[in-house]
Write a structure and sequence with these properties.
alpha+beta; ten-stranded mixed β-sheet; 2 domains; four-stranded mixed β-sheet; Immunoglobulin-like; 20% helix; Glutaredoxin; 14 strands
Length: 330
């Protein structure tokens, strides 16, 4: 699957149907990889090996040449973006503390790719086991086709690498960092008879359903909004994401507001069949449903006291990431 998408990028096509295919393939592959991450597959916590007889560095022990990368963030726009991805070999997921990532832009005229930026991506654990993904920030100065190359290095030598196609839009579907988000009113406990009327989260924390977004943004206090469907998500990270936000709330209670928006407007009606699900108006107004291939993956937005988004997180984000983003609002 990775090879076919990579070929797609190198052809540098910009038709809408092929863009949709790229996103859908990436989404399907991500779901498969997350499923593998939660099953019995091993982790590769490799360390640099000794040099061979020739004195040249060899591959990390436990890492073969079949390294594959999969982008976990697909709603990318011109500007600075949080980029998350997973790395795996046939032996399991790579869980090294950090890897190098280089971005390249593919010009529309078909000329050679232009190398743009190299950064370090740090590994972040998911709440279960030792699995997780790599996260970094990267800047994209042009819309169109890009490619990321994740590299395992020993000194200045690249020992193994994996490429990932990237589609960058002029503007992202979701509200951009620095923008003011829509003031759509979310459901709260004040209008519901029971938590199950407004969320599918079995361990629902009532504190996350006390305020509407306009109320929370009207008092000059930073706000953390998680949009997720813990009870109905098609990946295993939605429930843990809301749990992580609830954990962050315990640390910063009284210093920031925290809201959970259930992706679906009718959680009680879809207990037996997700086909009956209706998206929340908040989720629609904030652009999540505009993302090609979107179903119900989680998002977190951190907003400062002036009402502007300072950071946003597609897919699972660790408490370390969220705390760092929240600290920027103080």
């Amino acid at each position: 699957m990775i090879d076919s998408v990579d070929t797609f990028v190198k052809k540098n096509s910009h038709s809408r149907s092929r863009k949709a295919r790229l996103v859908i393939l990436s989404s399907l592959a991500l779901g498969l990889l997350i499923w593998q991450a939660c099953s019995g597959g091993g982790d590769v916590t490799a360390t640099p090996s000794d040099a061979g007889d020739s004195g040249a560095p060899t591959l990390f022990q436990g890492v073969g040449t079949d390294l594959e990368g999969l982008l976990a963030t697909i709603d990318l726009g011109v500007g600075t973006n949080r980029v998350a991805f997973l790395l795996q070999t046939s032996d399991g997921l790579i869980t090294l503390p950090r890897v190098k990532v280089t971005s390249s832009y593919f010009p529309e005229d078909g000329s050679s790719p232009i190398v743009k930026e190299t950064t370090s991506a740090n590994f972040h654990l998911w709440p279960f086991g030792t699995r997780g993904n790599y996260v970094t920030e990267m800047s994209f100065d042009l819309p169109g086709q890009w490619q990321l190359e994740a590299k395992l290095t020993e000194g200045d030598t690249v020992l193994a690498s994996a490429t990932m196609p990237v589609l960058v839009r002029e503007t992202s579907y979701t509200p951009a960092v620095g923008s003011t988000p829509p003031l759509t009113v979310n459901k709260t406990l004040g209008e519901a008879q029971d938590l199950s009327d407004i969320t599918g989260w079995i361990r629902a924390d009532p504190d996350l359903y006390q305020l509407t977004i306009p109320e929370a943004l009207g008092n000059g206090t930073p706000l953390v909004v998680v949009m997720s469907s813990p009870g109905f998500c098609t990946s295993p990270t939605c429930g843990p994401q809301v749990d992580t936000v609830a954990e962050l709330k315990q640390i910063y209670k009284g210093q920031a507001n925290f809201i959970h928006v259930e992706v679906y407007d009718n959680p009680q009606e879809i207990q037996e069949s997700l086909d009956q699900g209706r998206y929340s108006q908040v989720v629609k107004d904030w652009g999540l449903t505009g993302i090609e291939g979107y179903l119900n993956e989680s998002w977190v937005f951190i907003i400062d006291g002036s009402g502007r988004i300072v950071s946003k997180y597609e897919g699972y984000s660790s408490i370390e990431e969220l705390e760092r983003g929240l600290q920027e609002t103080f």
